[in-house]
Specification:
The protein has helices at 2-10, 12-30, 47-59, 112-130; strands spanning 36-44, 68-73, 79-92, 102-110, 138-142, 145-157. The chain has four helices and six strands. A hairpin with a 2-residue loop joins strand 5 and strand 6. Strands 1-4-3-2-5-6 form a six-stranded antiparallel barrel. It folds into two domains: 1-31, no CATH class; 36-157, no CATH class.
């Protein structure tokens, strides 16, 4: 504050502008951050585990009280995770002959503050998968159910 007092004496216009800027930053940080929309698609090969996972999704009340945790491996070890609120699941099963799999698409929201902390490290880990640095494996955790598969794509929409 002593520096601000010095600026007020030597250049009151500059002191006023700095004070206005700082108060604007404080107000902006106090505002809640908007949610980020995410759509991700995975290929699930363990169809029996998927069917059990889907049962948990179906029996969950429609009020969206459960969140989905999505995690991927990172080159530094461990996993990078995001939490998707109010997830909606779409499962596509092809009748074509071949090895059984389910293409699962999840749409939901990531809370603004969570997105600030977790989205960039999560996307960095996805890019590491894309580069072949780590294995392509995504884990979906919903309630007590968990299923793993290959990540096909991630789409993020921010306001």
């Amino acid at each position: 504050m002593a520096h601000l007092a010095h600026y007020q004496r030597s250049n009151p216009v500059l002191a006023w502008a700095v004070g206005l800027l700082l108060s604007g930053i404080e107000v902006a940080l106090a505002q809640p951050l908007p949610d980020v929309t995410i759509v991700l698609t995975a290929d699930i090969r363990d169809t029996d585990v998927w069917l059990g996972f889907q049962d948990e999704v179906v029996v969950t009340p429609g009020d969206g009280t459960k969140s989905l945790v999505v995690s991927v491996p990172a080159k530094t070890g461990g996993r990078r995770s995001i939490t998707v609120t109010s997830p909606e699941f779409t499962a596509k099963i092809s009748a074509a002959a071949g090895s059984p799999s389910v293409k699962v698409t999840v749409t939901g929201k990531i809370g603004g503050m969570h997105a600030v902390r977790a989205l960039t490290p999560f996307q960095q880990a996805v890019l590491e998968m894309q580069s072949g640095i780590v294995e392509n494996e995504v884990r979906l955790s919903y309630g007590v159910s968990e299923v793993s598969g290959h990540l096909i794509e991630v789409k993020v929409t921010a306001p």
